[in-house]
Specification:
alpha+beta, Porin, eleven-stranded antiparallel β-sheet, three-stranded antiparallel β-sheet, elongated
């Protein structure tokens, strides 16, 4: 995990150096919004199936919401280039089984018309998921890409829409059968944020 975070940090500062060397002025922006998470249902299903395999289906975890908060502040330069970090959406399951996952991201972006009131943009970068829980076996970094648009960009608070795909994976133990002692299992890889659709306010 420390190695992945170090690589992310080096990548982020390299991006910042590149974009700042080609621009004269910069503007910090702070998008905060809600994201629909396509892979959360798969994670919940594995937890429910594992409970059935271990305890015969007499217990149940809380039903997770596939929508959560996302925060990804970024710095925008006057040439349309920018760089930012992303935190979330946080995923949480609490009950007879526990699960926690917090994606962190570093990205490079390009805003096509940075001074317009309506500004399309693209983002690409790296992602890593800080995951833990009863059945979590590990996680691996990935890359992600986003396309989006910001509306009312010249106002104090603007609005944005975004669709993204993230290849970062977590590994979950998936059990089969029911036994009082132990259940056979395999490792299943899930892309928690494989597809995300987000709406946010930009401050």
């Amino acid at each position: 995990m420390r190695k992945n975070v170090l690589v992310f940090g080096i990548l982020f500062f390299a991006i910042m150096f590149f974009v700042s060397s080609t621009a004269r002025s910069a503007d910090w922006r702070f998008p905060l919004g809600l994201s629909y998470i396509s892979g959360f249902g798969d994670i919940s299903d594995i937890h429910e199936d594992n409970l059935k395999a271990e305890y015969g289906g007499v217990t149940k975890s809380s039903d997770p919401m596939p929508v959560a908060l996302t925060f990804h502040p970024y710095i925008q330069f006057d040439n349309g280039c920018g760089a930012g970090v992303g935190i979330g959406p946080m995923m949480l399951i609490i009950g007879d089984t526990d699960f926690f996952n917090l994606p962190i991201k570093l990205d490079f972006r390009y805003t096509i018309i940075p001074r317009a009131n309506i500004s399309p943009y693209v983002r690409v970068g790296g992602s890593y998921h800080l995951a833990s829980g009863d059945y979590v076996e590990g996680s691996s970094p990935g890359v992600f890409g986003c396309v989006g648009v910001e509306f009312l960009r010249k106002k104090v608070v603007s609005i944005g829409l975004e669709i993204s795909y993230d290849t970062a994976e977590i590994e979950l133990e998936k059990m089969y059968g029911y036994s009082w002692s132990a259940s056979p299992s395999t490792i299943e890889k899930i892309e928690p944020c494989g597809l995300m659709i987000s709406i946010f306010a930009v401050f």
